[in-house]
Write a structure and sequence with these properties.
- This protein is α+β, with helices and mostly antiparallel strands.
- Helices cover 31% and strands 31% of the residues.
- It has two domains: 115 residues, DNA Polymerase III, subunit A, domain 2 (DNA Polymerase III, Chain A, domain 2, Roll), CATH 3.10.150; 99 residues, no CATH class.
- It has an eight-stranded antiparallel β-sheet.
- Strand 8 and strand 9 form a beta hairpin.
- The protein starts with a strand and ends in an 8-residue tail after the last strand.
- The model has no long low-confidence stretch (mean pLDDT 90).
Length: 228
């Protein structure tokens, strides 16, 4: 397996930094890197259940980047370690003096205790089922953030925090019966939403995907929501 990957240029390095920094503000844990056929898929966990009784939906962010065709790997690495490596790469090139060609990124040591990383969304077979508006997702995210903040005073125990988050982010979005509010929270937090841009909704098996030009939000639906 590759111990490094090559992004196409310094702009891709900056783009990956931005995505990971946004993800780390929500959940500073790990990211899953899957490389193959010239594409790097970077999955970040925004919401996921922490135990058998936790009803928090599984919501992942996904950005893709071009890499070299011969690079193939599937690794889960600490998000902070990867950000540190990208920062050192950026610091090595003064502004306006970045290389025009590929930039090699060494992967941090893998971690093996990340439960959400074992849940793999499919990479193909998606079928379009509709669209939604950015405004609706942004209103849903803002309302949920305010509700969570009001319901969780400082010093609250982790168990209560998880219960509140599960309740708020597990509710369906108004008019989108099978999409939890956590998908809106993820799309907004990761910077995937922009005024005037459409949001496509696609499905395959138990997964729903909200797609914009800026990235993808993946939701694993509860069994009772699955449609024939």
């Amino acid at each position: 397996m590759s111990q490094s990957f090559s992004l196409t240029d310094s702009l891709s390095v900056s783009d990956l930094q931005t995505y990971l920094s946004r993800a780390a503000r929500v959940e500073e844990g790990s990211v899953r890197l899957i490389g193959g056929s010239g594409v790097l898929a970077v999955y970040s966990a925004i919401l996921y259940p922490r135990g058998l009784l936790d009803q928090t939906p599984t919501v992942l962010g996904l950005r893709t980047f071009a890499i070299q065709p011969d690079e193939a790997f599937d690794a889960v690495v600490p998000i902070r370690s990867l950000l540190d490596r990208l920062a050192r790469i950026a610091e090595a090139f003064p502004e306006g003096d970045a290389p025009a060609g590929p930039v090699e990124v060494r992967m941090p040591l893998e971690v093996s205790t990340v439960t959400w990383a074992g849940i793999s969304p499919p990479r193909g077979g998606w079928r379009p089922v509709g669209e939604t508006e950015v405004d609706l997702l942004q209103r849903t995210a803002a309302g949920g953030i305010a509700e969570v903040a009001e319901a969780i005073p400082s010093g609250t125990g982790e168990q209560l925090v998880q219960r509140v988050r599960a309740e708020v982010w597990g509710r369906p979005i108004e008019g989108l019966e099978y999409v939890p509010a956590g998908a809106a929270f993820a799309a907004e937090s990761l910077g995937f939403l922009a005024a005037g841009e459409p949001v496509s909704i696609l499905e395959t098996g138990p997964w729903t995907r909200l797609t914009t030009k800026r990235g993808h939000t993946l939701v694993r639906r509860q069994a009772w929501t699955l449609r024939a």
